[in-house]
Predict the 3D structure of the following.
Amino acid sequence: MKCKFIVISVLSFIILLACSDDDCDSLSGKWSRVGDIYVSADVDNEYHNEGVTFKIGESVFWCVGDLLYRVSGKSNISNALDKFPGTARKGAVAFVIGEKAYVGLGYSEEEGERVYHDDFWVFNGKTYKWEIEPLLYQFPGGARGNAVAFTLEGRGYVGTGQYAGETLRDFYTFDPETGWHEFESLKHSFYGGVAFVAGGCAYVCTGGKDLDALSSKTYDLFVGMYKLTLATGKWETLDRIDGEGGMFDGTRIHASCFVLKHGGREYAYVVSGLNQYGMAIANCMRYDPRKDKWQEVAYLPEPTVGGSAFSIDGKGYVMVDQRRGFNNTLWEFQP
């Protein structure tokens, strides 16, 4: 099912906020530019960001527009694996159960109208092929874009997002045998957030809602974080996202996120995005689930908005849309 509404385009100035060299040098971790990733000319420039990544086994896949790539920590992706069977889109979500990835929702831009989608498509990690028909079980939450999704103990979870100016807070869980089931909604509604699983629990944070769509883009950002533990099956509200003693402001929308394991522990990294004034920010944060603490890490040299992210072999990667030609830039983070 497709749902349409008209998008009003506005002119805005994006300021890239970064830190001084001395400040950046004092932060942990290091970013290195891997190189350019070639995106097929078949993918319209409009779809070079807000792609979606997922991992099956040790293989990472990137769905951008209507093409699927297998990615690694190297640049120069040359050939698409398979064409996405649904409509080309951005702001989609994905979760993985076993050898299959479930990719869906999101929105398309068609002649000045934003078209939201409510379908899901299944990719088989063994055959490297999409199933020819969309997922039989209809997503009960309706069309939306910029939602979040994750997998926890063999179930997929999907929630939040935006549809036709409405910001959402509902959540649903998916079982391959029984389909979709309604899950506990969040107390806050937002879109453009991130979700990750670390230390055996799931977390949802960042994101926000529009304050004024008719002038320079401004956002009412979500300042807290939610935690889901299987033992309780309930959402727990955690403190606001900032450093110890409020040392930095971690709120943002359209950030990137990946999880790394080092020292025998898992840490989540939230990278770049937009601040409340619609300005791209370069600062990055690390979350320690065991201590429930946030810490600033090295800034991303090229701030990105809605950049696709993934992790391989203990390193994190973020794709930065250059808005030039058909290339994205791949950056590597070492903790």
The helical segments are 21-25.
